[in-house]
Amino acid sequence: MKRTLLLALALSPLVVLAADDDPIPQRQDLMSDTREALKPLIGMSRGQVEFDAATVSDSLAVFATTAEKGPALFPEGSESGHDTEARDTIWSDPDGFQQRFTDFADAVAAAQAADIQSLEGLKAELNGVLGTCKGCHDDYRVEKD
Ligand code: HEC
Question: 95: Cβ–Cβ under 8 A, 6 or more apart, which residues?
């Protein structure tokens, strides 16, 4: 009885993993969340949305999550399927790709450390973060739209 229970407990996370194992939709969802978090910041920087420090802070937290979870979501074997826009350079140049995640994480950490409280402060940090999105996309993503 006890053994069965232990076994069930030991196996259950594996079952969950197997059902929800595909890293491609996970990374696509993560990136979509990232874009959604970016939208209000772009709106603020263009003067279309009122500056709000709490929103900025929330968006930066989403970016930090992307930087933290992203690197593990591109394992070997996830090169194709789900209309992935991942480029084969991710696997031919894994160090370079990981470095882009580090660059992104650093830019996000710098923006968080700047404790943005004004539109000027946002503008000062946003380009640095966006540059790291673009830097990675340019070399490691094929845009299919
Ligand atoms: C280290 C590399 C890297 C960084 C940094 C990065 N991305 Fe991406 N992004 C990718 C890759 C690779 C894909 C393609 C994923 C796929 O389709 O499997 C992608 C896909 C996307 C997509 C399409 C998602 C979908 O629905 O398929 C959006 C939107 C996106 N990224 C936004 C961003 C934004 C905004 C940032 C910065 C705030 C960012 N990304 C930073 C590598 C990166």
Answer: none
Cα 110 to middle of ligand 1, angstroms: 20
Sign, Cα dihedral of 102, 129, 116, 110: positive
- Tell how far the Cα of 95 is from the centroid of ligand 1, in angstroms: 17
Q: Is 135 in the pocket of ligand 1 (CB under 6 A)?
A: no
Contact 27, 70 (CB under 8 A): yes
Q: Can you give the pLDDT of all 145 residues of the chain as single tens digits? A: 456 655 555 555 544 444 468 999 999 999 999 999 999 999 999 999 999 999 999 999 999 999 999 999 999 999 999 999 999 999 999 999 999 999 999 999 999 999 999 999 999 999 999 999 999 999 999 987 6
Site to substitute for ligand 1 among 24, 30, 31, most atoms within 8 A of C-beta: 31
Residue owning the nearest CA to atom 2 of ligand 1: 136
